Amino acid sequence: MEDIRTIKQRFEIIGNDIKLNRAIEKAVQVAPTDFTVLITGESGVGKEIFPRIIHSFSARKHAQYIAVNCGGIPEGTIDSELFGHEKGSFTGALSDRKGYFEVSDGGTIFLDEVGELPLSTQAKLLRVLEAGEFIRVGSSKVQKTNVRVIAATNVDLPAAVKNGKFREDLYYRINTIPISIPALRDRKEDISLLFRKFAADFAEKYRMPPIRLTEDAVQILENYRWPGNVRELKNITEQISILEQERTVDALRLKEYLPAQNNTLPALTSNPESDHSFATEREILYKILFDMKKDMNDLKHLVYDIMQKEHTIKPEPEPSTSIVLRNLYETPQSEFLGQAPQKTISVEKNNHIEDTEAVVEESLSLEEKEKEMIVKALEKNHGKRKLAAQDLGISERTLYRKLKEYDIEI
After folding, report:
1. Is 293 helix (H, G, I), strand (E, B) or coil?
2. The pTM is what?
3. Pick the residue with more confidence: 265 or 317?
4. Which one, 49, 112, 142, 148, has least CB within 10 Å?
5. Counting Cβ atoms within 10 Å, is residue 67 exposed (0-12), middle (13-18) or buried (19+)?
6. Structural domains of the chain, ranges and CATH numbers in brackets
7. 169-190 in b/e burial notation, b at 16+ Cβ within 10 A?
8. Strands (E), 70-155
9. pLDDT digits (tens, 9 = 90+) for 47-69
10. What is the CA 122 to chain-centroid distance, rounded?
């Protein structure tokens, strides 16, 4: 049996990560058996290499090896591709056709993106795995096949089973031997090795000196999250190899090729179990307006306190505090939840302010105004929450929460 270093050279695997080495060892160990293998890992980690390792170390290595991308075949033709069809079984079926399971009889079939298979096809695949039987499309004749199945997916299959998108019995059948491939971000020490290998390959391909990275650029490379994994690293290395005239790249230059990972705007997160989650942009705007309104109320309190300390208000020019207060209270508020315009403060020029405290208290009671508008909307729509929510410009879910908050009975 070849050692792991020889296997890496043979299949051009770069890296010394412990998890990667363990995945290779499991592939070699399971190869002599006929167990079904499920390979999992993020997109771009190189899952397609491991079925070839298993096939090459198995007793089927001289037989047919077929790799099928299940996600790339339309749902209407997937059964025909996998199991074949009879002449005339559907429009365009001008002759009999063998499917992949028939062609690979005695060999190995690799089903990539197995999580994308339709449920009807999953049932037929389960029959192949359990009984070695299949039926061509348009036929009633049961055929036998002796094929080793290796599957791969980047989908969370247990979650897909829970959601009814993947058969539970099929999941346990293909998950006989699981092999997990680590993401590139979890193999930091391998990132610079892979970059140098890709840079050397592209230098030879395009007949130019290889790209080299400064130490600070290597740090940037290793700290990047690589959502596209090895595939993304290879693509970026090729871009740099073609576009850069200077063959030594520093951190500042390298950042131009890496997608920005940080947003300048705060992320809006949603928790389905939280009462503060927002279903629509309208509700997000609704909350922002509430926050702005609270800030405005604080400012009104501040202005009112200032005016209380003033003993006189000069007739000309109008004092700044009076102008600020008038602007605050003369601002129309009808846009907010359909409220009617609020009363304005009457500031007389005879050094006397009338009913200031009463008006301030009225305008500060935002909750009462909101409760009043909700009650009016419900009365207008005869207690129908959906119509009332539409009038208020909020979702029915938000209205329901407000009814509970204000203890409003319909």
Report:
1. helix
2. 0.63
3. 317
4. 142
5. middle
6. 4-182 (3.40.50.300), 185-257 (1.10.8.60), 366-406 (1.10.10.60)
7. ebbebbeebebebbbbeebeeb
8. 108-112, 133-135, 142-144, 148-153
9. 999 999 999 999 999 999 999 99
10. 25
